[in-house]
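ZP: hey, is the zinc ion complex queued? I don't see it on the tracker
AM: it wasn't, my bad. submitting now with these inputs:
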Amino acid sequence: MTAYLISGSQLLPQRFWDRVAVADHHWVWTGYTADNGRPMFELEGRRRRNARALAWSAFKGPIPAGHYVVNVCGTDLCIRPDCCLAVTPAENGILRRQPMCNMGHPLSGDNLLVSCGKRLCRTCRRENKRAARAARR
Ligand SMILES: [Zn+2]
Ligand SMILES: [Zn+2]
């Protein structure tokens, strides 16, 4: 697992992965955290940076301008890029106000589907499709 993670990223040194504990499909940060609980990592000779942002750019490429990386899987200190979203401050506000879909399913983790910058509920989508199929019969 560790070897795979490293080969996925030329940017992040072994020191980074030494601070990651893989739990189920989450990557839990065990290193330094800022006062606000944000996982932080200091790249050689540079300022401390958000470990989520570093992992994101290593696996998904540059973070779009004006966006920052936030965790949406709900696991404390998880830094896995697939558990995070790059959002604008405005989108992050919506995210915080709306942790669940209209039906009360959690808009996080495996149930969260991100499409065109919108957060969708997988459970609802599946059920809507099933209902649409049933209606056609
Ligand atoms: Zn996670
Ligand atoms: Zn739902």
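AM: back. Residues 1-9 have pLDDT under 50 and may be disordered.
ZP: great, adding it to the tracker
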